[in-house]
Amino acid sequence: MQTYIANVTLFDGRTVRTKQGVLVQGERIAWVGAHARAPGAAKAARGLDGTGRTLSPGLIDCHVHLAFDGLADFAGEAERMTPPLAAVKATVNARKHLAAGVTTVRDLGGPGGACIDVGRAIDDGVIAGPRVLAAGCALTITGGHGHNVAFAREVDGADAVRKAVREEIKRGATAIKIVATGGVLTPGIGATFTAFTREELAAAVDEAHSWGRPVAAHAIGAEGILGAVRAGVDSIEHCNHVSPQIAREMKERGTYRSPTLCALRGIVDNPKQVPAYAVEKGRAVEAASRESHARAVKAGILHVCGTDAGTPFNPHGSAPKELAYMVEWGMTPFAAMRAGTANGADLLRRPDVGRVEAGKLADLVLYAENPVDDITAAAKPLKVWKSGRPA
Ligand SMILES: [Zn+2]
Q1: How far away, in angstroms, is 64 Cα from ligand 1 center?
Q2: Long-range contacts of 241-246 (CB under 8 A, 24+ apart)
């Protein structure tokens, strides 16, 4: 099947051009160029008039928890969690991303590899959903952030960390998640507590990279962030404390920052429903975050879009909202759209998505307005394609 999108404003992941044409053949993009110079095959294809509209690569959400629904009582939901229930929830939640124009997600922690298998079922065409990359279970220290919920496993010592990385990869993990500091949603541990030794971090990174898998480090406090950056992780998730030194080192190393503002706002904007310990920690983290975000953007650190969907009041399909928050806190809409598309593909090591170019998979979103002019336009996709098929 061939589809030709005619005379559209194109944000290709890197630049914006007007009066473009995009030809889709099967699951891939066959041709991109000036509409006036469209090849003969475009005339034979089923046409879609893109006049006045904007076409973008499908969005990439680099941080979700498909097994969790975004309920106020995160710990209560986790208590009732089993891998089969996780798979059912992930099946339902995955679709919400696709409807929001998100064609690729990365799951950074769920029980028993359930989200890895949901990703396989989507790849096999059993169920509809975005492309799911998944870390399996996150790795945390004994008593560390997430130990009380079903998304992390406790592991201590460099050898044990290395073995856990191998086990997650054997199960099908396409990324590794390490919990390098305390967290907002775990009682009894400060959000900025530094977890894992230098040797443990080095073992995780060395092993994951030898399998070609990126490492995502959950890190809130400055010491934990710097330790993870120096250990060579690929992305810092949350990254709420950005000192001038951290900004410099992340920029130099090309470490990605995933600020997960939806997670923070979900907690601090709902103080009556979210447990008090989480609200208190969330407020302290937010106080540091605004300045950190501005500093990180100014320093030119590479950003990606990560919602942390599944945490309290943070429903699935919120990537457009995350992009809007990133802009609200001092990023241009253009930089936010890059973060949500091309940068995400680069971080996830998926050169076949995140850009509208000949040869890439046809993951596309058509918008009525241009999100590069006004980021709120990203919340209203008119049409979504994943691998060339209308979603
Ligand atoms: Zn998370």
Answers
A1: 6
A2: 241/192, 241/288, 241/292, 242/292, 242/293, 242/295, 242/296, 242/299, 242/301, 244/295, 246/222
